[in-house]
Automatic annotation (TrEMBL):
Protein name: PEX5-related protein
Location(s), subcellular: Cytoplasm; Membrane
Short name of any one Pfam family annotated for the protein: TPR_8
Topology within the bilayer: Peripheral membrane protein
Domain of life, source organism: Eukaryota
Keyword field: Cytoplasm, Membrane, Phosphoprotein, Repeat, TPR repeat
Stretches for region Disordered: 1-33
TPR repeat coordinates: 79-112, 181-214, 215-248
Family: Belongs to the peroxisomal targeting signal receptor family.
Functional summary from the UniProt entry: Accessory subunit of hyperpolarization-activated cyclic nucleotide-gated (HCN) channels, regulating their cell-surface expression and cyclic nucleotide dependence.
Molecular functions (GO terms): peroxisome matrix targeting signal-1 binding
InterPro entries according to UniProt: PEX5/PEX5L, TPR-like_helical_dom_sf, TPR_rpt
Gene Ontology process terms (BP): protein import into peroxisome matrix, docking
Length: 331
């Protein structure tokens, strides 16, 4: 159980990182293909991309994924659909699918700046530091405002994280009279990668000064605060993210982790059950489509409550029993 907790704590810029570095997966997501849902009921529907955008805004992430997969099956060259699919999978705590989708988007449109930034975040969450740094350098290379910095730089294309950080800091000096929230987001990611969490908090806070309604930024701020052992502040940031986007599974999961760190085990369980129920809510979302990471975190939280009968239910994946045990309605 301790090993399981340590593995969870390394994900999503969570707590207890200390000096441990995540071990990259043995097979890179780049080497894997995207696995589409079989028997997609939206396969031949018209206007599926617009419908997917609406479902994503509503927080119905599972339905949005099915609609986006249908859009791609109808037009495999639709880079915008691949981009939104990647971002939606990341929100839904499915990093593997997010990485593959965003990489496909960038094959079709290499200068897609939002997709590059999203991919850098997904690589960071997956412990793939070198890949994250490479993508952030590409973001600078393709950004019309900053690409001259790379052309003027003598750093090689396979720059170290420190080289990429210097590029972003140099770019920030070009914006002394204003804040570029995208650049600050990149700085926040890079400072997280170098474990300089106070500076990462400053960067994400600067980005939020321009985009206060950006739920992704609030989640990234929360995760950074949690990494810096500031769990109470992290809870406030996650809560703000969920106020802006109640269906944001990743932030709900992160909030549960911070609750564990604060000793609020029942609140943690409540958040994990809410996240799992949100994933299940779509009638076509099977048990296998629910996040294994959330189930693992739920087992840890329940184990800390000394409720062996409920721990067994969590091991069995009995969500209905757990919802009843914690007086949570299936809404």
């Amino acid at each position: 159980m301790q090993a399981e907790w340590e593995e969870l704590a390394r994900r999503n810029w969570l707590e207890d990182s200390e000096d441990q570095q995540p071990v990259p997966p043995t097979v890179s997501p780049a080497e894997k293909g995207y696995y589409f849902n079989t028997n997609n009921p939206y396969r031949d529907w018209p206007n599926v991309f617009a419908e997917a955008q609406e479902k994503a805004r509503e927080g119905d992430l599972n339905t949005a994924v099915l609609l986006l997969e249908a859009a791609i099956l109808q037009d495999p060259q639709d880079s915008e659909a691949w981009q939104l699919l990647g971002m939606t999978q990341a929100d839904n705590e499915n990093e593997q699918a997010a990485i593959v989708s965003l990489q496909r988007c960038l094959e079709l449109r290499p200068n897609n700046l939002p997709a590059l930034m999203a991919l850098a975040v997904s690589f960071t969450n997956s412990g793939m530091q070198r890949e994250a740094g490479d993508v952030l350098r590409r973001w600078i290379c393709h950004n019309p405002r900053y690409k001259h910095l790379v052309q003027d730089s003598r750093s090689p294309s396979n720059s170290s994280l420190q080289d990429v950080l210097l590029l972003f800091q140099e770019a920030a000096l070009l914006n002394l009279d204003c804040v570029d929230p995208d650049l600050q987001t990149g700085l926040g990611v890079l400072f997280n990668l170098s474990s300089d969490f106070d500076k990462a908090v400053e960067a994400f806070s600067a980005a939020l000064s321009v985009r206060p309604q950006d739920y992704l930024l609030w989640n990234r701020l929360g995760a950074t605060l949690a990494n810096g052992n500031r769990s109470e502040e992290a809870v406030e940031a996650y809560t703000r993210a969920l106020e802006l986007q109640p269906g944001f599974i990743r932030s709900r999961y992160n909030l549960g982790i911070s609750c564990i760190n604060l000793g609020a085990h029942r609140e943690a369980v409540s958040n994990f059950l809410t996240a799992l129920n949100q994933q299940r809510r779509s009638q076509r979302c099977s048990q296998q489509q629910m996040s294994a990471n959330i189930w693992a975190a739920l087992r840890i939280a329940i184990s800390m409550m000394d409720r062996p009968e409920l721990f067994q239910a969590a091991n069995m994946g009995d969500l209905d029993l757990l919802m009843r045990a914690f007086d949570m309605s299936d809404v």
